[in-house]
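In this supplementary section we document a worked example of the pipeline. Step one takes a protein sequence of length 399 as its only input; no multiple sequence alignment statistics are reported here. Step two produces a three-dimensional model, which step three serialises into structure tokens for compact storage. The input and output of this example are shown verbatim.
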Amino acid sequence: MRIQMPAQVEQIIGKLNENGYEAFAVGGCVRDSLLGREPEDWDITTSARPEQVKALFRRTVDTGIQHGTVTVMIGRIGYEVTTYRIDGEYEDGRHPKQVVFTSNLLEDLRRRDFTINAMAYSYETGMVDAFGGVQDLEKKVIRCVGDPLERFTEDALRILRAIRFCAQLGFAVEAGTREAIPVIAPNLAKVSRERIQAELTKILLSDHPEQIKAVYATGISRYISPAFAALPWERVSVPATLPREKYVRWAAFLRGNEGKGDAEDCGRQARSETAVRVLRDLKMDNDTIARVKLLVAWSGVEPAAESEAVRRAMAQMEPELWDALSDLNGYGEEIRALTARIRADGDCLWLKDLAVKGRDLIEAGIKPGKEIGEILSRMLDHVLSHPEDNQREILLRIK
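The serialised model returned by step three reads:
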């Protein structure tokens, strides 16, 4: 079993070996390589202490020196090199109070979360798989290293990571690991909402976003937030065919179960307010919240398949949000063809594209103030019905 490592990783491992230290590629990069996936990062574990690593390489960054991690820079790319370690007591249910360096690779691998992430590899030694990670990859299961109650007690976020790996890889949680999830779920109260939100987002952005339902089925949701727990999760549908944009997938999850044509203002407002409450509880960034709010409000709303109706709907949002809404609501070919034609014709949809500006009105004798905004709004309303009239001379005549 041979894994093709980047030349830079081979170079770092080789230099450590030449100076009498063990070194291996470890964790996710080994897992992804065995699955035929492109690793996002290549992490290296070594018997060398941080100061020894720093002495061997010209450019390093102390990214996590207290936990034994030094980033070795080769060109513009950084590679994390971490000393074998044994984690101390997890007092906060998230981080070890202290770490103890060790010279034993297996001790380092034993502290990791899941078997598929507890494998190490080097050209010299080959695969080091003491906990059955290769077998679990073949069986497509997520299994904790050792006692799942201990692993989850150490770090409650691992509960969500288990579901996230299932979503990303199309795996299932092994029975013993699954049974431990509801037992330790209350410890999620110790985990920051930002970290929880990041895991939930990764689930929604995966090839299997429907795995978000496992967060409810396993009893985790009640420890995330009251608003999140109250969502009608059994009716949720997040198609894997939707664009992998955070705001699109979250909007699909939060849009509820209303059907097309439900355009009642009160219903739209209630849906969007619920979405905002959930995302604020999860400390989501304001830009994503605003985008999701708009998409959820428009979920299930379909304009008539005629030019003016589509123009007026498009004018309510940014172009990428309209495209996302088209996917979210499953608009048909007629609306999509009208969208393409409106864009190709360059129809005016927003004030910034109006042929008349505020200064034109001032030059025409209108006093600066509220009236100018009102006139521009009327002009925009007119050209949404008559796009051919977006000309300075015509608009000034109808002001």
